[in-house]
Amino acid sequence: MIEHLPTLNALLNATSAILLVTGHHFIKRGNKVAHKKCMIATFSVSTLFLISYLTYHYHHGTTRFMGEGFIRPVYFTILISHTILAAAIVPFAIITLRRGLRDQIEKHVKIARWTYPIWLYVSSTGVIVYLMLYHLYSR
Question: How far apart are the first and last CA of the chain?
Answer without folding.
Answer: 20
